[in-house]
């Protein structure tokens, strides 16, 4: 596995190199953003650790250029754009993480980090978990950036992602899901064509998907708005901006609950079949 370590501090770079020495990792270092972008094309890393605050070009700008496959630096940016990027920063906050995930980051590590932390995060990302493998989530938002922020960490946990730009598009996808293979819906509140509230009502009433977890992603936090979400059938909600850990924790809980309910329904069906066949 190849790691690109990007930081304007030689000390931090050496600390990270020391952290990953126990693993079977090949490392290369870059002292700033432009140096990193130049080395990615040649080195083709499996993962990048990226300082946020660097002179000349911030880590967020570097990440954005990687995600869009900037032709100024990459001949074929499509594969490079999917490289996991771990931000390393001493200025950790919800606002900072929101900006980082919006630029396409995979994870955050806060300086100073404890021994074993960097190695643990890297291994967890590269050894993609099968925790939620086989499950499918529908992400509904009119913002492509917002969909990326939601989808990326869930894919890391093995979730298959379907995307829709608005409620009407999402409803069509759900109508075509005859075998109920979609296990969860994450939807924005305000969207053109059909908003999240109308989508939720139609899922519950028109499609009859009463047990399908529906999580709202909303900037609203007043009591009346939240109560309205639950009245139309919401399972849960997250207030923007949210951090990646909060998103994955909520989604994991609801998907596990859905798995258990589906398994119980299957067992009950088998039990009924057994009783009907018993002489």
Automatic annotation (TrEMBL):
Coiled-coil intervals: none
GO BP, one annotated term: phosphorelay signal transduction system
Presence of the UniProt keyword Phosphoprotein in the record: yes
Occurrences of domain Response regulatory (ranges): 2-126, 136-255
Gene3D superfamilies according to UniProt: 3.40.50.2300
Keywords noted in UniProt: Phosphoprotein
Record-listed 4-aspartylphosphate modification sites: 51, 188
PANTHER family for the chain: RESPONSE REGULATORY DOMAIN-CONTAINING PROTEIN, STRESS RESPONSE REGULATOR PROTEIN 1
Protein name: Response regulatory domain-containing protein
